[in-house]
Structure formats: structure tokens, C-alpha cells
């Protein structure tokens, strides 16, 4: 059974938020991220694209959701 881990980075700003999100992606196999900082979102999306990692991005209110695709 595959568990999907979600990391909630709301309330955190870059650069700390980006560092923690990236760590969760690499070390914890996290597949779902909730962000509320525009700069963190931009940096995370740029990182995912540079690493050819497939993802979907959506917005719910003031929150940004990024889902990593297998």
C-alpha cells in the first residue's frame, strides 16, 4: 500500500519554506504540498521542471496545491 504524504508549508516563507519542501520531496517521498507563499511556489515549480518531475498545480483560495505525479 502506498501512502501519500502531504506537507503543509502554509505560514512559511522562502527560503526556509523552499528548503523544507525540497527536503520533504527528496527524503520523505512526499507527493502533496500546500503552500501560501508566491516566491516559494515559483521556486518549487522551477525546481520540479529542472528535474523533469511531473506535477499538477491548483489554487484553493489563497493556498497553492502541488501534487507530484508518479
Automatic annotation (TrEMBL):
Domain of life: Bacteria
Protein name as it appears in the record: Uncharacterized protein
Originating species: Psychrosphaera haliotis
Amino acid at each position: 500500500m502506498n501512502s501519500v504524504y502531504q506537507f503543509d508549508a502554509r505560514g512559511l516563507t522562502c527560503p526556509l519554506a523552499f528548503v523544507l519542501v525540497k527536503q520533504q520531496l527528496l527524503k520523505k517521498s512526499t507527493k502533496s504540498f500546500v503552500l501560501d507563499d508566491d516566491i516559494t511556489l515559483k521556486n518549487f515549480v522551477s525546481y520540479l521542471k529542472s528535474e523533469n518531475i511531473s506535477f499538477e498545480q491548483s489554487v484553493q483560495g489563497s493556498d497553492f496545491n502541488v501534487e507530484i505525479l508518479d
